[in-house]
């Protein structure tokens, strides 16, 4: 369970990192849209787990490029929030697979063949 302080810090990081990927780190991601889906901060606020979602890009290569430039992204973050926080957290990036998983589950569910209900089953559901 995250404390209010951790949640507040995570929200600040999510907002600022989103702006960094839109403006300052454009050379890293090119035309790709990088979305910060979730941020979890350690209790001492020194480490932040950042979950990224990618649109219009090769997920793996963009993720690897971001990993290589972690220090540069942290530097941009430090310039933005350095006056309001005591510690600029170490950043740990992770790809967020929830959108891909949701799309996969949608395909699985739409591919199911559900037989029509028999007359007996319809009569039972009418009585309820």
TrEMBL record:
Keywords for this protein: Cytoplasm, Ribosome biogenesis
Cited InterPro entries: KH_dom-like_a/b, RbfA, RbfA_dom_sf
Lineage summary: Bacteria, Pseudomonadati, Bacteroidota, Cytophagia, Cytophagales
Cell location: Cytoplasm
Example of a GO biological process term: maturation of SSU-rRNA
Gene Ontology cellular-component terms listed: cytosol
Protein name (record): Ribosome-binding factor A
Spans through the membrane: none
Main localization category: cytoplasm
Assembly behavior: Monomer. Binds 30S ribosomal subunits, but not 50S ribosomal subunits or 70S ribosomes.
GO function terms (MF aspect): ribosomal small subunit binding
One Pfam family it belongs to: RBFA
Family listed: Belongs to the RbfA family.
Job description of the protein: One of several proteins that assist in the late maturation steps of the functional core of the 30S ribosomal subunit. Associates with free 30S ribosomal subunits (but not with 30S subunits that are part of 70S ribosomes or polysomes). Required for efficient processing of 16S rRNA. May interact with the 5'-terminal helix region of 16S rRNA.
PANTHER family hit by this protein: RIBOSOME-BINDING FACTOR A, CHLOROPLASTIC-RELATED (PTHR33515:SF1)
Keyword set includes Cytoplasm: yes
